[in-house]
Amino acid sequence: MHGGAHRATTDHDRLARRNVLVLACAQALGGASPPIVVSLGGIVGHMLASDKALATLPVSLLNLGLAMGTIPAAMLMRRLGRRPGYLIGALIGAVAGAIATAGISLGAFAVFCLGTLVAGIYGAFVQSYRFAAADVASEAFRPRAISWVMFGGLASAVIGPQLVIWTRDALPGVSFAGSFLAQGALALLAVPVVAQLRAPPVGALPPAGGRPLVEIVRTPRFIIAVVSGLVSYGLMSFMMTAAPLAMVGCGHSIGEAALGIQWHVLSMFAPSFFTGRLIARFGKEAVTATGLALIAVAAAVALSGLGVAHFWIALVLLGLGWNFGFIGATAMVTDCYRPEERAKVQAANDFLVFGSVALASFSSGKLLDAAGWTTVNWLVFPPIAVVILLVLRQARTTRRRRPAA
Fold first, then answer.
1. Alpha-helix residue ranges (DSSP H) falling in 81-141
2. Do the Cβ atoms of 89 and 200 come closer than 8 Å?
3. Distance (Å, whole) CA 38 – CA 53
4. Which of 368, 24, 377 is nearest to 190 (CA)?
5. How far apart are the two ends of the chain, measured CA to CA in Å?
6. Residues in domain Major facilitator superfamily (MFS) profile (predicted)?
7. What is the SS3 assignment for 290?
8. E strands, 130-179, where?
9. pLDDT digit string, tens, across residues 192-201
10. What is the rounded CA–CA span in Å between residue 268 and residue 264?
11. CA nearest to 43, candidates 136, 131, 164
12. pTM for the full model?
C-alpha cells in the first residue's frame, strides 16, 4: 500500500514538474502585460485624460479586470478544463492589446481604459497558473510548484519594461501605442505554449461540492491567508502604481521610471526559485511575515529621499516583499480547501485579493495627486503591523496543533 502511494505521488510530481515548465513559460509571456500597463498606464492616462486626477485609472482598471475575471475564469475552466480556458484567456489578452492601441491612436481615454480592463481579465487567467501548478502536485511539492511558476515572471520582468523602451515610438506620431500592440502580440505567443499543458480532464476532476463557501471563508485560517495576500499585493500595487508618476513628477525621465519598474518586477519574481524551499524550511507564516516586513522597509526607504536610487531601492524591496508575502499567502490558501472545494475557494481568494488591489491602485493615484508621495508611503505601515501580528498568531496556533515528533 505504501509503495503504491509513493508511486502515485512520484507520478503526480513528474506531471506537475512538466506542467510547471509549461506554466512558467506562459507566465513569462502573460506576466509581461501588467508591467507594460503599470509602466505606461499612468503616463498615458495623464496624456489622454482631461481630469489629471484620473491618470492612474487605467492601472486601477487593470486590477479591477483581474478581480472581475477571477470567478468567470474559474467557472470556465471548471466547465472546459484548464488548457481550453488558458487558450481563451490568451486570445482575450491579444484583444486587450488591440483595444489599448486603438485608444491611444484615437486619443480616446475611455477606449484606452477599456483595453487595460480587458488586459486585467486576461491577467485573471494568468494569475491562476500558480494554482494550476498545484493541482496535481503532492503536498510536499506544492509550495515549490507554485514558486517555480512564479519564477517564470522573472523573464516577464525583463520582457515588459524592455518592450516599453523598444516599442514606445514604434508607431510614428503615436507615442506608446507600439508598446500596447506588442502586449497583444505576447498574448498570441502564449497560445502554443499553454496548448502544451497536461491538466486533468474535466471528467477526472473531483465533483464540485464540499462545504459551503460561506463556511470556508469564515474560518480563521482562510481569513488570515486572504488578508495576507490582499495586503501584500494591495500595498505593493498601492506604491508601485504611484511610483512612476512620482518619479516623473520629481524630474526623473520616463526611461528611468520604466527601468525602476523593471527592477521592481525582477525582484518580484527572482526569489521564486528558492521561496518554496524557504517555506518548506521555515513555514508559510514565517515567510509571509518576512515579506510584509520588507514592504514596510520599502516604504521607509521611499520616505528617506527622492533621488533615483531611493525610488529604485524602494521598488526592489517592494518586489521582494511581495514575493515572500504573496507566495506565502498563496501556499496558506492551499491548506484551506479539500479537492472538491478547490475551484470555488481559489476563485474567492483571487476575487477578494484583486478587488482590494483595484481599490488600492485607484486610491493611490488620487492620493498622490491630492497629498503627495510621502503620504502614500506613510499609509503602508498600519496594515502591515496588524497583518504581521495575525500571521504570527496563526503560526503559533499551527505549531501548537502539530503533533510532537
1. 82-106, 109-127, 129-135
2. no
3. 16
4. 24
5. 23
6. 221-405
7. helix
8. none
9. 999 888 876 6
10. 6
11. 164
12. 0.72
The domain containing residue 353 runs over which residues? 2-401
Separation between Cα atoms, residue 30 and residue 135, nearest integer Å: 20
Cell of residue 38, nine digits: 503599470
Q: How far is CA 184 from CA 22, 33, 303, in A?
A: 20, 8, 36
pLDDT (0 to 100) of residue 5: 46
- pLDDT category of residue 8 using cuts at 50, 70 and 90: very low
Which residue type does 79 have?
A: R
Per-chain mean pLDDT for the chain: 83
Place of cell 520599502: 298
Q: Per the structure, how many domains does the chain have?
A: 1
Closest CA to 183 of 324, 4, 29: 29
**Residue 316's CB: how many other CB atoms inside 10 A?**
20
Cα dihedral across residues 71, 73, 76, 78: positive or negative? negative
Q: How big is the CA angle at 184 (ends 179 and 190), to the nearest 5 degrees?
A: 125
Whether the Cβ atoms of residue 121 and residue 96 lie closer than 8 Å to each other: yes
Q: Residue 205 pLDDT more than 70? A: no
Say which DSSP state 201 is in: P
What is the spatial distance between Cα 287 and Cα 277, in angstroms, rounded to a whole number?
10
CB of 39 closer than 8 Å to CB of 164: yes
Q: Give the three cell numbers for residue 112.
A: 484606452
- Residue 207 has a pLDDT of 56
Q: What integer pLDDT is reported at residue 10 of this predicted model?
A: 57
Residue 354 phi/psi, 5° resolution?
-80, -25
Find, among 25, 38, 3, the residue nearest to 265 by Cα. 38
**Which triple of cell numbers denotes residue 109?**
481615454
d(CA 295, CA 267): 12
Report the 10 Å Cβ neighbour count for 202. 13
C-alpha pair distances (Å), 172 with each of 95, 105, 177, 178, 361: 22, 10, 9, 9, 31
- Tens digit of each residue's pLDDT (9 = 90 or more) over 88-132: 999 999 999 999 999 999 999 999 999 999 999 999 899 888 778
CATH code assigned at 174 = 1.20.1250.20
**Separation of CA 108 from chain center:** 27
Burial of 402 (0-12, 13-18, 19+ CB in 10 A): exposed
- 479591477: which residue's cell? 64
